Known about the structure:
Blueprint (H helix, E strand, L loop, with lengths): L1 E5 L5 E8 L2 E9 L8 E7 L2 H11 L7 E3 L2
Antiparallel strand pairs: 1-2, 1-5, 2-3, 3-4
Amino acid sequence: MSEWVCGCCGRWRVSVELIRGRYVYRLVHRYPRRFGGGKNVLGEVGSVTELAELLRRVAPVSLADLHEAA
């Protein structure tokens, strides 16, 4: 599984998973530990174009702000 994380705070993450023979991009928002931690899945899409649209609608980051997680 590949994962990208935002460079600003690290709380916005996009993972690529193979589900039933199709690749799915999953956008997740992670909460800081001081607020109880955890994560919230905001959406799953099937293409990079749809991912860019999802990011534009629900996140303050864009594709350009993401980098590969270490």
